[in-house]
Design goal:
Layout (H helix, E strand, L loop, with lengths): L1 E10 L2 E7 L3 E6 L6 H13 L14 H6 L4 E10 L2 E11 L11 E7 L2 E3 L1 H4 L5 E5 L3 H5 L2 H13 L3 H25 L8 H37 L7 E6 L4 H4 L7 H11 L1 H7 L10 E6 L2 E2 H4 L2 H23 L4 E5 L7 H9 L6 E6 L14 E6 L2 E4 L2
Helix pairs in contact: 6-7, 6-10, 7-9, 7-12
Length: 390
């Protein structure tokens, strides 16, 4: 899999960028604040339909466009070549104007595949990426929401059924919580929860099972890679899935009756849910534990150990994506190589020879050096313009 052509119009720092790309390794050199992270974020958004940095959709539109255009919009397009052929994917972010002369306060996303309007779920997975970034440490030491987001982004690119279940679960959870608040105020009857509990159990079971299997495989492979990256360390890495469900349900994550068991748990917990006005169990409260030497990595591990754990997880993700789909993802390395010691840098770069395309951003043309990547195509990024380097 590789990007053959990329077009960005009014996307953050890029007023207009059009570039042809070949398979292989591309090194993009640019000083800080020239758009390196914005470039890789745009590519990742074409894969996942969402910004990996968070924030609002309006933040994705170039400031000049928001200030100057009556209806500001950003457009991201790419031609993606896979083993099965070539496709054109497009994401548009359009500012929602409420009155003439009033700047938009929000934006909406629109999607196209081969020129035809589609839903977000139809675009996800057409392009698959694995993004290595400096803020990957937040997966290890950040709040549980970071780890759930990591799993959702990873699995959504690989499994359309997971995308549909995740979307359905989110909508049903919102409806169920709204009903719980009404019941808390004694407005309604508990049996009104029957429908929503059934829907939540069905979609929740898909999410739980997929996450459990993904963490099992990713954790196994990350542990092996961590031992290679941290050769001087004696502590082992463990990655443990912690579904936020009762123990009897957690013990049946790989069983065919998981949805039935989850439904029983939801019904049994209704009284407490009504008292709190919130759904207390389910994948929306899951977590993943990272242990180094048996201790919580986010608390006890050194910064070097945390970085090794995050790198090991991303490297495992590359192999997992390739195994699930038969086609390697595009690798995006956002300004991380200059921060790694030679051994870790060499291990990350070695992955480049097992995939079709790698885009590496760096502020320092010496890292990676020409000796480390002798066949790499080099680019210079400055002021939102991407041009061939020396």
């Amino acid at each position: 899999m590789h990007l053959a052509r990329l077009t960005l119009i009014d996307a953050r720092t890029f007023r207009r960028l059009e570039v042809e790309l070949t398979p292989g390794v591309h090194v993009i050199v640019g000083a800080n604040a020239q758009g390196k992270s914005n470039l890789l974020e745009a590519i990742a958004m074409l894969a996942t339909t969402r910004s990996l940095r968070g924030g609002t959709d309006l933040d994705l539109i170039a400031w000049d466009a928001v200030a100057d255009d009556p209806i500001p919009a950003a457009r991201l397009e790419a031609d993606v070549v896979t083993a099965s052929g070539r496709e054109h994917v497009e994401v548009s972010i359009v500012g929602q104007v409420v009155a003439v002369g009033v700047p938009p306060q929000r934006a909406a996303r629109r999607f196209r595949v081969n020129g035809v309007a589609r839903r977000a779920s139809d675009l996800i997975g057409r392009l698959r990426v694995v993004l290595f970034a400096a803020d990957d440490l937040a997966i290890i030491d950040g709040p549980p929401a970071h780890r759930r987001r990591y799993l959702d982004i990873t699995l959504s690119q690989l499994d359309p059924a997971y995308v549909r279940a995740l979307q359905r679960y989110s909508r049903v959870l919102e409806q169920r919580n709204s009903l719980l608040k009404r019941l808390q105020e004694r407005r309604g009857k508990p049996d009104e929860l029957d429908f929503w509990d059934g829907e939540l159990a069905e979609s929740g079971a898909v999410i739980l099972a997929a996450r459990a299997e993904a963490v099992r495989v990713l954790g196994r492979d990350a542990a092996v890679t961590y031992a290679e990256l941290a050769a001087s360390e004696t502590e082992a890495l463990e990655v443990i899935y912690e579904p936020h469900v009762p123990a009897p349900v957690a013990a049946r994550l790989r069983e065919h009756d998981l949805a039935e068991r989850l439904l029983e748990a939801l019904v049994a917990g209704r009284t407490e849910d009504v008292r709190r006005g919130l759904s207390q169990i389910g994948p929306h409260r899951d977590d993943v534990r990272f242990l180094v030497g048996g201790h919580a990595a986010g608390v006890s591990a050194s910064r070097g150990q945390q970085r090794s754990a995050a790198l090991a997880l991303r490297l495992a993700e590359v192999a997992y994506s390739k195994a699930r789909t038969g086609d390697a993802p595009v690798l995006l390395l956002d300004d991380i190589l200059s921060e790694l010691d030679p051994a870790r840098r060499a291990r990350v770069l070695s992955v480049a020879y097992g995939v079709d395309q790698v885009l590496i951003t760096t502020p320092d043309a010496a890292h990676p050096s020409r000796a480390e990547l002798p066949g790499a195509i080099r680019w210079r990024l400055e002021g939102g313009r991407l041009e061939p380097g020396e």
